[in-house]
UniProtKB/TrEMBL annotation, chain B:
InterPro entries: DUF112_TM. It comes from Micromonospora thermarum. Residues 21-438 form the DUF112 domain. Keywords: Membrane, Transmembrane, Transmembrane helix. The chain crosses the membrane at residues 45-69, 109-132, 144-162, 169-188, 200-220, 315-341, 353-374, 386-407, 413-443, 464-486. This is Tripartite tricarboxylate transporter permease.
Length: 339, 501
């Protein structure tokens, strides 16, 4: 009697063990052979997102992962490797097997990391194959509801007059909100007290709660709070207005044309990935970006897929080179360093 | 009457066949990942998120929410049976729950946890339906300075978790805070205590610490002598709580629910504090203080209720304001977005069926959980009869696989070994792992909010005393410290006097 029970329980445990082993292996892409581009892909592809699950970059990745998987005919597993402004995840992919089964989704942070981190373990242009650009997410300048300035120009005047009182929140060193905040300070010609948070969620919570004065963040996070009237919005940082927030002026319209920034996203493979594999990934990316469901989902976030000619390795490399130069200067001028 | 209409709308949504089905799938999966050490709700929700893209939005959210509170439920099972907490809240349950299991009372412990969770879940769901928007606006009043004082209060309260010396408990809290500082500092990016190991930049994983300090250390201690080894396999007295047990758990369940529901609303980590604040309260007001740490059923029922109530009310900031309080909630924000719903304060008005359907589903989910878990108690208790030669290697194997599967980082597995050995040494020195674990969880929150409050106030420390919420919390913290440490000091003085005589 007792022995049968023992056996039943032992069997149950064995089954649970097998399932968790399976989960562990499938999540890891299985290891395996790779390298044979003709059969690519013949196993799961891992998309590494160097930020937390549920954040804007993660959301964009999951949107395109499904149609890309359909086009490639393989399963795509999204894995979040957070830390240090995305440099932990990026470093991991830079060191990964160059077989096309480990792919990185990164945003503007790829171009700012070399200036921010002195001991960066990889070189953006040399350690990766560019696959293509994905989307450019606009940013918005938002403040707590009862913050006095009414317009963007009022805001600039106000923060200049009260530079020792005003607080500027961001989601941590190297986060998009941090970069946009730097750009704002340089455009307005003022140095403000920055308040870093661990991610956008907590930062936005304190902004809605009135604990900090203002911040600059992606429409992905802010549009709900703006249309719900929980925060005050001044401008959107792209040349054109955003469809989901039609009343919000652009920074150029609001009198601060120097403040232009968007969170551009791109796909990367480790250096040395066979060219035809990169090509296959790029084609799949193009197909995903043309997918109506993806276009609709992105529109709701106030963004859109890049044009097809930008979802290519060449366009991606050009963009990265230009951005590396731009940010090196802004960050050096601001005197920021994250070690 | 409006509330009634809303609830009717909610239940008519939540009782749709596919919604009940996916609610069940969610809580079942949640229970499973809660039971398996390592694989937590965040990883599970992240893995399943893409599957829900094809569901109706409300169905998707019902399932994802089910995984979250189901895991809170399941986490207590391994904590009680094999002293292996999967989440910080379950570490508190392990204190008395595992002691009860060693005394052959695993059944009543599991039942108390299940019943407490159900009652708490039900009451907290009512709170969510009646008062979500006003509670959310109260939560927003908490600034960094207030969170600092709240966490400090929580740390001091956690001294009560120790069975023995309060000073040793304080030392363990401090050690836990130190372990919590490993990794990159979020304000400057400076790596701390990483010894040039890139893998440590992200910090030490909670699961590694919990599995090592509790599970592995407990196994090592059990291997010491034949007597202790047989004790865990020991006799099973009864499966169900006795009449006396039932009488003893009513008040702790209600108090735990109230505490948990209140703390759960705070998005800056309030839900972490729920279970052990409840434990401390129960221990403080109990007439059987000496039983705590040695199998007091109140020490299981109270914290489990608090934990589950907090799990429900922590949805309030998300649902009313679109602000996530937990990584799982952040994933759910992602789910909102993918389904074309902009998370934010408009969700209640724009999507009433979704909001009320989700709330109604939480009650249904809690009912499903209790129906699912009560019959399983017999099965779980039988697990204790597995001979230790089989059970111990199994535990370690599952723990290692589960921890590795979190982020595929071998360091997380090495950390289990390190903390297992450390935990064993500490037990031998009479130091207990629970305060260390809470220091580890709360330390980063403490530091982050301290520094943030000082940044905002431009270095003016008086902000902790001039903000009313913070000032009250600090005063309570000081009082709690005096109450906790005084008896120890008095005892020592008595000893000194006794020696002088």
């Amino acid at each position: 009697m007792t022995t049968t029970r023992h056996r039943a329980v032992a069997r149950m445990i064995a089954v649970i063990g097998a399932v968790s082993l399976l989960a562990a292996c499938s999540g890891n892409g299985g290891g395996g052979t790779g390298g044979d581009a003709g059969n690519y892909p013949d196993q799961n592809i891992t998309f590494v997102v160097p930020f937390s699950a549920g954040g804007p970059t993660d959301t964009v990745t999951r949107m395109i992962a499904e149609p890309m998987a359909a086009k490639l005919g393989a399963k795509i597993v999204v894995q979040n490797v957070e830390g240090a402004g995305g440099t932990v995840g990026a470093g991991e992919v830079a060191r990964a097997e160059a077989d096309g089964y480990t792919v990185l989704m990164h945003h503007i942070g790829m171009s700012t990391a070399p200036a921010l981190y002195k001991n960066l373990g990889y070189k953006p242009l040399e350690d990766f194959e560019m696959v293509g650009l994905v989307t450019e997410v606009p940013m918005t300048i938002v403040a707590r509801k009862d913050f006095p300035p009414a317009t963007l120009q009022d805001l600039v005047t106000h923060v200049k007059a009260n530079a020792n009182k005003v607080t500027l929140a961001n989601a941590g060193i190297g986060a998009a909100s941090h970069l946009c905040g730097l750009l704002f300070q340089s455009a307005a010609g003022v140095k403000l007290q920055e308040v870093p948070y661990e991610g956008t969620g907590p930062a936005l919570t304190d902004l809605v709660g009135g604990q900090v004065d203002f911040m600059c963040d992606q429409t992905t996070n802010t549009s709900g709070q703006i249309s719900g009237g929980k925060v005050k919005a001044y401008a959107v940082t792209t040349p054109e207005r955003v469809k989901s927030l039609p009343d919000l002026p652009t920074t150029a319209e609001a009198g601060l044309p120097q403040l232009q920034v968007s969170v551009w996203h791109g796909l990367y493979a480790p250096k040395g990935t066979p060219q035809d594999v990169v090509q296959k990934l790029s084609e799949a990316l193009k197909a995903a970006l043309a997918d109506q469901a993806v276009i609709d989902q992105m529109a709701k976030l106030g963004t859109a897929p890049v044009p097809a000619e930008d979802a290519t390795p060449q366009a991606h490399r050009t963009k990265l080179e230009e951005q590396l130069g731009t940010w090196a200067k802004i960050i050096a001028d601001a005197g920021v360093e994250a070690s | 009457m409006e509330l009634l209409d809303n609830l009717v709308l909610g239940f008519s949504t939540a009782l749709l066949v596919q919604n009940v089905l996916y609610c069940f799938v969610g809580v079942l999966l949640g229970t499973a990942v809660g039971v398996l050490p390592g694989i937590g709700p965040t990883a599970t929700v992240a893995m399943l998120l893409p599957i829900t893209f094809n569901f109706e939005p409300v169905t998707a959210l019902i399932m994802l929410a089910g995984i979250y509170y189901g895991a809170q439920y399941g986490g207590s099972t391994t904590a009680i049976l094999i002293n292996l907490p999967g989440e910080s809240s379950a570490a508190v349950t392990a204190l008395d729950g595992h002691e009860m299991a060693r005394q052959g009372r695993a059944g009543p412990a599991l039942a108390a946890a299940a019943i407490g969770s159900f009652v708490a879940g039900t009451l907290a769901t009512v709170a969510l339906a009646v008062a979500a928007p006003p509670l959310a606006s109260v939560a927003l009043k908490f600034g960094p300075a207030d969170y600092f004082s709240l966490v400090l209060f929580g740390l001091i309260v956690s001294i009560a978790l120790a069975r023995g010396s309060a000073l040793k408990a304080l030392a363990m809290i401090a050690l836990g805070i130190l372990f919590g500082t490993v990794g990159q500092d979020i304000y400057t990016g400076t790596p701390r205590f990483v010894f040039d190991q890139r893998e440590l930049y992200g910090g030490i994983d909670f699961v590694s610490v919990a599995v090592g300090m509790f599970g592995v250390a407990e196994i090592l201690r059990n291997l010491e002598n034949e007597q202790a080894r047989t004790a865990i396999v020991g006799k099973v007295k009864n499966l169900w709580p006795t009449r006396e047990d039932r009488r003893r758990i009513v008040a702790p369940i209600l108090r735990g629910t109230g505490l948990g529901a209140a703390l759960g609303v705070l998005p800056g980590g309030g839900h972490v504090l729920a279970s052990f604040t409840s434990y401390a309260v129960e221990k403080r007001i109990s007439k059987r203080q000496q039983e705590f740490g040695h199998g007091a059923i109140e020490g299981v029922a109270g914290p489990e209720s608090a934990n589950n109530a907090a799990a429900q009310t922590s949805f309030i900031p998300l649902l009313t304001l679109g602000l996530p309080a937990h990584p799982v909630m952040a994933l759910m924000v992602g789910a909102f977005i993918v389904h074309g719903i902009t998370p934010g304060p408009n969700v209640i008005e724009d999507e009433p069926a979704l909001f009320w359907g989700l709330i109604a589903s939480m009650w249904i989910g809690n009912l499903l959980l209790v129906l699912l878990n009560l019959p399983l108690i017999g099965v779980w208790v039988r697990m204790l009869r597995i001979p230790y030669q089989v059970l111990f290697p199994m535990i370690i194997l599952f723990a290692a696989i589960g921890t590795y599967s979190l982020s595929f980082n071998p360091y997380d597995v090495y950390a289990i070994v390190f903390f297992g050995l450390l935990g064993y040494v500490l037990i031998k020195c009479g130091c207990e792992p629970a305060p260390l674990l809470l220091g580890f969880v709360l330390g980063p929150l403490l530091e982050e909010n301290l520094r943030r409050a000082l940044i905002i106030s431009r270095g003016d420390a008086s902000v902790f005393l001039t903000r009313p919420i913070s000032a009250v919390l600090l005063a309570v913290a000081v009082a709690a410290l005096v109450v906790a440490v005084l008896p120890t000091i008095r005892k020592r003085r008595e000893v000194v006097f006794a020696e002088e005589e």
